[in-house]
Design goal:
47 residues, 38% helix, 0% strand
């Protein structure tokens, strides 16, 4: 597999997918900083 992120031939694809990702993150309330929200605690499971 080869990373094409910095390949100028793929600039349009990168721009499109980055826009879609940003929209999905906003829609789902995702944390783009990479921090995950705490997992919910379920009874009977250790914390």
């Amino acid at each position: 597999m080869h990373n094409r992120y910095d390949d100028p031939r793929y600039a349009d694809v990168v721009r499109e997918l980055t826009g879609r990702l940003t929209a999905l993150q906003a829609h789902y309330g995702d944390t783009p900083d990479g921090h995950l929200p705490p997992a919910p605690h379920r009874e009977g499971l250790p914390r």
